[in-house]
Amino acid sequence: MKTKFIKILTLAFAFVFQISFAQQTVSGTITDADNQPLPGATVVVQGTSSATTTDFDGNYSIAAANGDVLVISYVGYTATEVTVNGTSMNVSLTTSTALDEVVVTALGVTRDKKSLGYAVQTVSGESVGDVKSVNAIEALQGEVAGLDIQAFNTMGGSANVVIRGYSSLSGSNQALFVIDGTPIDNLTGNSRDNNTGRGGVDFGNAAMDINPNDIESVSVLKGAAASALYGSRASNGVILITTKKGKAQEGLGISFNSQITTGTVDMETLPVYQDQYGYGYGQYRRAYIGPSAIETGAQWTGNYYGQWGNNSSFYTGDDGSYGPKLVGQEVHHWYNMVPEWADLYQQTAPAVAPNDTPNDFFENDVTFQNSISLSDANENGSFRLSFTNLSNEGILPNSSLDRNSASLRATRNFGDLTVDGSVNYVNSQTTGRFNTGYDGLNPMQGFRQWWAVGASILEQKRVFDETGKNYSWNMIGTNTDDATASPNHQPLYFDNPYWSRYNNYSTDSRNRYFGNISLTYDLNEDINILGRVTYDNVTEVREQRANVAVGTGGKGANLFDDQPGYQLQNRIRSEYNYDLIFDYTKDLSDNLDMVALAGYNLRVQNWDHATAQTNGGLNFPDIFSLTNSVNPLTAADVAQYDAQKKVEGLYGSLSFGYDDTYFVEGTYRRDRSSALPVDNNSYDYYSVSGSVILSNLISSDIITFAKLRANHAVVGNDTAPYNVFRAYTINPARNGAASSSNPSTLPNQNLKAETTTENEVGLEMTLFNGRLGLDLSVYEKTTDDLLTSLDMSPSTGFSGIVTNAGSIQNKGFEALVRLTPVMMNDFKWNVVLNYSTFESEILSLGNDATGNAIQYLNQMSPQGGVSIGGQVGEPYGVIRGHAHVRDANGDKVLRVRSGSYDYAHYLRTSNSNNVIGDINPDWTGSVRNSFTYKNFDLSFLIDIQQGGDFFSLDTWYGYGTGAYDRSVGLNHLGNDMRLTIPNGGGKLLDGVILPASATITDGVADVAGTQNTDVMSRYDYYANPEGWTSIGAPHEMHVHDASFAKLRELRIGYTFPSELLDTSPFTNAAVAFVGRNLWIIGKNSPYTDPEAGLGAGNFQGYQTGAYPAVKTYGLNIKLDF
Length: 1121
Prior knowledge:
Blueprint: H1 2-19, E1 25-31, E2 42-45, E3 51-53, E4 59-63, E5 69-74, E6 77-83, E7 91-92, E8 102-104, E9 110-112, E10 120-124, H2 125-129, E11 147-151, E12 159-163, E13 176-179, E14 182-184, H3 192-195, E15 215-221, H4 224-227, E16 238-243, E17 253-265, H5 286-289, H6 293-296, E18 307-308, E19 330-331, E20 349-350, E21 365-378, E22 381-393, E23 400-414, E24 417-431, H7 443-450, H8 457-467, E25 475-477, E26 479-480, E27 488-491, H9 497-503, E28 504-522, E29 527-546, E30 565-587, E31 592-613, E32 615-618, E33 629-631, E34 638-658, E35 662-673, E36 682-693, E37 703-717, E38 729-730, E39 740-741, E40 745-746, E41 754-767, E42 772-784, E43 787-791, E44 800-804, E45 807-823, E46 827-844, E47 856-860, E48 867-871, E49 878-881, E50 893-897, E51 903-906, E52 914-918, E53 923-933, E54 936-946, E55 949-952, H10 953-961, E56 987-988, E57 992-993, E58 1000-1001, E59 1004-1005, E60 1010-1011, E61 1015-1016, E62 1039-1041, E63 1044-1055, H11 1058-1061, E64 1068-1083, E65 1102-1103, E66 1110-1120
Helix pairs in contact: 7-10
């Protein structure tokens, strides 16, 4: 049936395409009374969803027929209606006391912004497309108050898109994307390991396939009232994207856009390594001779992996940097074990720091984006056909992404019947996506946590280039003092990172087509009927290759049970939506108008996933195929998951406007979901909103426009399929063996949908004849019946249950300020400021499976011993772990261990249930400055976050291994910290010592301590109290402030004047220097990007193996023919 549908759709568009070449475009310039251009003015063909915005010079073009009415609106100016009578129409607007801007709202309906009782913020297509990113959604960072977009520095990776904070604990918090009426689910499809920091690959999320060159405008529906007509998908807000339509001009319009950028890693987001001590854990090796090592100064005299020629070699089997001081002494290095390097084999070389560090592992990011479009329009319709090629080489070796996008948007008018539709096709081919988390395939795990100073990363590259073998700095070597013994070349923990990138890597191919076709019939001048079908289909093939599995110590690549292997995944997902909408618009009197809407929606979603992998290794190396499996595969070796979900909804809205001053609107939707039990599968959602134009009631020379708005709404969020009924689970293949079993999660026949109730009040103002604009919002939203996964006693036969438990509340404030400080004949300066803040509180958590009240919800327990979740009265996203013990004055308490000499370390709380951080920021904001001078333009965006925390497993391990610069230097005595304590080494810690009589309760002493005078050991990993060691540092030491200020975007452009183009084939030409993430103006987190993480989803505030930020800059060229 789907195949037939696509064929019919293709024929329909072929017909539209043929007849559209006769269409016309209306173009012109929108100015104010002083003949100054108005950038960002909205131009709408009355009675349709066809709309555009003016560029920096006030120019516009739109498809319209002679006799159509154009409605031109701009904040603070009177909306003007003009009748089309040609292809060129210039319009001058006058200031107004009313807000006449037109915006796109839910279901793609255009409305006068002054009539809306809820917050909608619009971003122009130029803002999204002028400085392009591989993931188009990243271009919205800092553009909208209350919209938090976090990217994770991985090639083609996901972006976390959350509006007004987290309102669901276990369900999705991702905003819904709707492109020309087509809903796009923004989930990632990443594995659980990826989502919890234990490995895996970030495959990106759905919205990244959007082509920024096709975007006309973006409307963000922030609150529940704005998105209520989407029912059970509305609780997270909606991002509406309107794509470009054909424009009328003389002849066929051709546009070409080309951008090339190069990127370099930001060194401010990478470790700074010490260069004084080599690798190994040193002569004291406390782990091997007992806890008395530091007290007695006893030394390890036995043999150990990596030793080669007693005490004259770096211990290559170690993964720390507490080895010998690098003073040029002759020692055996890892490369002296490489037999292919005959001149070095079994020789020694000076122990000196290399001239490179792991930071030299990264390559330049290079991205080419080329786009061409054809368009035309006339009174009968319009079309726009575009093609874009994107080619990206990532910062890691053997990483690339190629994406081809083609789209067709066409309309056709048949009198009272209008056909509108779009077809989008995206093909992506990716090699070497970035592995994330604590995974041997993630090079950042080794670089940030376990790197050994003294090993040259460029020598690792050279040995791989010349031999093709996995010679690692971390080879097992020998455990003998015989310097002529044959070494074991197997890596103990870590592969050669270059070998790993070319031998253990993933590829994926994604084919996606999405779009819609709609028929609109005007029954009369008041009533029209819309029928629409939307579709979104994704077919994805993922392949994982492992040439050989190494890392027997547990930190290296460990796929396929330590054997070479190959895994193949086929993933298909689809969504179809069928809508029938009746729209009725009527002027009931001279002062009273009404708009009514009623509709029906059917949504059908399907998932079909299959996974298979080789069994017992590969028969032939380097041939990655299931047929190359050592053991033959059977039908049982394939794991498969099939699911379907259907939701049908009835909805309607009714709005009234009186005297162009008072507006009120009500909406209602009833959804029925197949994922919920029969008795609880139908839910009602509604909203009530209103606005009053205050400026119509008062007279002021300062206030050009003022509106007060308020709303109340109830929306929802239902569950995934098969949480209600028992169904067999097909287990993922492990070493080629798959099986089916009863589900470990108890089906819940009483499951209900989450419901979100939101109240919002807002004020919009325009002052000083449009030179200053304000949009302020205050909201409170509460989500009840939270969908929550709870653990169950194993005696029940189940591990857990999905149930409704608890509620969470978010309160927030948002501000948008638009300012024009300077407006002269040739020069204009615009400023846009966004600001938002919110507070989250868990109101209740319900009862567990045994009926007892839940005290704490642990959202995730990642590696390192911390947890992220919350309890009643706390925000969602609290980080818990071991905290510092503090005295009565709040000072950190130290413990002194006595032996032959004393040494100190921080005392930590006895349990790990202490609040040590909160992932939620205090506030976020941005400032965009735009300048135009004649044909030049300059704009830049500064993005700011204040507050928020994250736990770093990178510093938790890395501070202990001795690789960072902080582990060396001079102490308070002026001595080398790495000297033994009897020889004046160690570091004096800031803290206090408690008297023996002190009592500690909940991590706080009842008395004050005295200032510490003892030092900590700086020369032994296992006694280093700053990282993960046998002593155990408080987790609190590794919770870092996520605040930042970034130069997010920069553009310096020049538009060639028309007189220079008169003799050329171009109607428009522009060139610009562009850049993204060029400068971290300020941050408080050491050695990392505070925005880095694992990927999109609810689990944030945790870094392990974090990738560095990338500064990109390049050139953009636009040509119109």
